[in-house]
Amino acid sequence: MGDSLFEGLPPPSHQQQNQEAEANDVSKTTKREPSTVPAPPKPALKSALKRPKPVEAKPDPEADGAAEKVAASGKRLRFKTTTDASETQVIEAMKKIASHIKTPTKFSKASKLAIQLIQAGSVKPGTSDHFFAILEAAMSSNTSCTDPSVRADYHALFSAAQDAAECLNKKQKNQLATWTVRAVVANDLFTDDSFVFSKTAGQVRDAIADLPVATKDDDMEEAASLNDKATTTDEYSEREETRSVAEAEENKGESDPFGLDALIPSAVKKDEKVKGKKDTPANVRKGEEEESKRFLKEQREALITCLEIAARRYKTPWCQTVIDILVKHAFDHVGRFTSCQRDAIQKLWASIREQLTRRKQGKSVNGKLDVNGFEWLQQKYAGEKISIRHSVGGSGDRRASQWLG
């Protein structure tokens, strides 16, 4: 063997010269004869991260037009998911909601549909009367708006109704304000949040302070309404109804011998009677006075309901101070209520004041002495048998009084 491993091999420079010469010879032969040199291998595929980004395809107007035609046909593609309902459709929906919202089992679903109409802006001057009919039907339900089963739904409905109040007339706004006290403010007094309870009590105090002083006429109207309720019975009403029907039949032949009244709608006859009298200034002023009296009457009754609900929560310790202030405020402004309501507020304040005196003496609402948490646990576990070995060796001598002191 030689001394070197590379013995007999040409130097690198000479090898490169030979390769360049061979390449030149091949290029000359390709001009005259078909190439017999194999094609170079295809480049290896790069990973997805190293590949160039694909060119975004430009929108095709013809394809878009075809998609719109398919969507218009209503077969498969539907790009428009919401439609604007006409006023007639909204009115029909409101009528259906008003017919179902009286049923307690359907109230939750019906009230949610009414809220959706409010949020969609469907309550307009043209549909406001039908929307007010929904609220009226809700308050005429046999179930009270403070009932635990529907309390949250009433609260949500009449809270959302405030956004549509601007479409109502003056009388409807007054009625909505009264219903709001019953459905929202009164229900807030059932809360377990001390902040909400205190804030709601403040709203009741402000509403009481805004009431005008009750007059003798208010007391007389209240007494008259109570007497009417006491003397009116089912038997009396049936007798009166029978008598009125008989009188109507007797007078029918005298006033309408030819039977023409049956062909004329009663609403038209009524309008003819009040024509020229309805829009007189005196009648307008009288109607406004009656509406104001009715509003004040219902407002006072709603606030009395709030006071009763708050007083029933006096057993809750963190409610007591707020209730003391609220009932004391109502007692200080008792002149803003009618006679029977004044008596109820005075009795309520006497009861609250008695319980307040007990609290100052260290007694609870039930008359027992107040105890702290440690004393309550000491009384509870004083007769309990406790063993350090759990179920083994419990002789009953180890009582809680030994470790509680």
TrEMBL record:
Coiled coil spans: none
Superkingdom of the source species: Eukaryota
Signal sequence annotation: none
Compositional bias of kind Basic and acidic residues: 239-255, 268-292
Region (Disordered): 1-71, 219-292
Name of the protein: Nucleolar/coiled-body phosphoprotein
Origin organism lineage: Eukaryota, Viridiplantae, Streptophyta, Embryophyta, Tracheophyta
